[in-house]
């Protein structure tokens, strides 16, 4: 809040239900209850996340590899050049090549020893490209080794094993006067990555690239084939109307929408609203709230609700605790549901909830604005026409798994 006016306006939006008991709420926690974790997170000073953090810290990491990589990228690892500047050692040259001062930039990708290994590893990972200057190479890795799947894990494991073993070889030469050639270090990296990767379940989409990737690393894998089904807008039954609601959240604004249609797909009423951005779940609930309000205004008492948020259904059915900020909205929703003759709520696919999604994107400058069907934009009219005609939409719902076993390396 930047001004007293904004504070006053926010207080005006607070709704007090005189019939409900007071409730103690721990506002820094999403669940309303006190937790040490939420309290700690609200108090601690958060620094910006480093670009390469997800490259080093990920689910399937080898802890010692990630730790050494973190030390190098954070520049905590003491290079000979740094020690030379401090006067600790008399020689600053790289022990791996003897050609340049040993600093982090040189060790990372510039050193011919590291360059040889990283070039071969890039080929193993399916890339045919030249190594960039250290900062750019790191950014390239961050951009290309992202995601949460088996192939990405192997790429990240390789990235960390590279730093670990280059540093380990450097230490071996400095402290033990033992030398291993680059191809031998490369073999060790390949072996360790493959051993680690063989320990977790590798499930990837069945593509030529993924098959070749696993083949190159001599790894067994499960290749998944996506399966598409058709879905369509759900018509109401049992003399009910269908209420579709949705909420959306962007950086600067949040919107929600609701549309009521009869069993012929004819629009009975529609509404949209906006509020300050909070969370998707809250705006989804606001969509349901204005939808029920719209139904009440038009005298509909037998309602089937279709939402594309399973979370909203859990809140309405009291299977999950809503965020504390949404409690007044939930009370309003339950109050309106109690006044209905018939109410049911079900999950619908996003593809069949596009009319409500369109209304949610309108973001009018009020919490509730009724929109007459004659003023609908052409896009929305088209969606309603297709829904009414029973148009089917393709959706990737489930997959079956083809197990593809490779021979031993
Ligand atoms: Zn070197």
TrEMBL record:
Pfam families, A to Z: RVT_3, zf-RVT
Domain RNase H type-1: 244-363
GO molecular function, one term: RNA-DNA hybrid ribonuclease activity
Segments forming domain Reverse transcriptase zinc-binding: 34-118
InterPro entries the UniProt entry points to: RNase_H-like, RNase_H-like_dom_plant, RNaseH-like_sf, RNaseH_domain, RNaseH_sf, RVT-Znf
PANTHER family: OS05G0353850 PROTEIN, REVERSE TRANSCRIPTASE-LIKE PROTEIN
Protein name: Ribonuclease H domain
Organism the protein comes from: Macleaya cordata
């Amino acid at each position: 809040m930047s001004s007293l006016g904004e504070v006053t306006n926010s207080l005006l939006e607070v709704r007090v239900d005189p019939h409900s008991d007071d409730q103690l709420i721990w506002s820094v926690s999403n669940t309303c209850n006190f937790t040490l974790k939420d309290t700690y997170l609200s108090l601690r000073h958060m620094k910006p996340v480093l670009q390469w953090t997800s490259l080093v810290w990920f689910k399937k990491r080898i802890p010692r590899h990630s730790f050494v990589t973190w030390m190098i990228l954070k520049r905590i690892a003491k290079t000979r050049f740094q020690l030379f500047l401090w006067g600790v050692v008399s020689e600053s040259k790289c022990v791996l090549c003897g050609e340049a001062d040993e600093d982090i930039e040189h060790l990372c990708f510039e050193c011919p020893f590291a360059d040889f290994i990283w070039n071969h590893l890039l080929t193993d990972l399916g890339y045919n490209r030249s190594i960039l200057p250290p900062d750019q190479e790191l950014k390239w890795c961050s951009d290309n080794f992202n995601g949460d799947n088996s192939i990405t894990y192997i790429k990240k494991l390789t990235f960390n094993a590279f730093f670990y073993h280059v540093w380990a070889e450097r230490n071996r030469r400095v402290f033990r006067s033992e030398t291993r050639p680059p191809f031998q270090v490369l073999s060790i990296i390949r072996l360790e990555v493959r051993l680690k990767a063989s320990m977790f379940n590798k499930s990837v989409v069945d593509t030529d690239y993924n098959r070749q990737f696993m083949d190159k690393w001599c790894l067994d894998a499960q290749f998944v084939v996506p399966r598409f089904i058709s879905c369509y807008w759900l018509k109401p039954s049992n003399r009910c109307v269908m209420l579709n609601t949705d909420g959306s959240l962007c950086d600067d604004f949040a919107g929600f929408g609701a549309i009521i249609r009869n069993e012929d797909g004819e629009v009975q009423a529609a509404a949209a609203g906006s509020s300050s951005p909070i969370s998707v779940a809250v705006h989804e609930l606001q969509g349901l709230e204005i939808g029920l309000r719209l139904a009440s205004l038009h005298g509909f008492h037998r309602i089937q609700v279709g939402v594309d948020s399973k979370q909203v259904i859990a809140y309405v059915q009291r299977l999950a605790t809503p965020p504390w900020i949404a409690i007044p909205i939930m009370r309003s929703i339950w109050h309106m549901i109690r006044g209905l003759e018939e109410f049911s709520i079900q999950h619908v696919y996003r593809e069949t909830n596009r009319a409500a999604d369109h209304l949610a994107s309108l973001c009018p400058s009020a919490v509730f604005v009724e929109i007459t069907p004659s003023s609908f934009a052409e896009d929305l009219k088209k969606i309603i026409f297709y829904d009414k005609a029973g148009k089917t939409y393709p959706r990737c719902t489930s997959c079956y798994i083809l197990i593809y076993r490779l021979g031993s390396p």
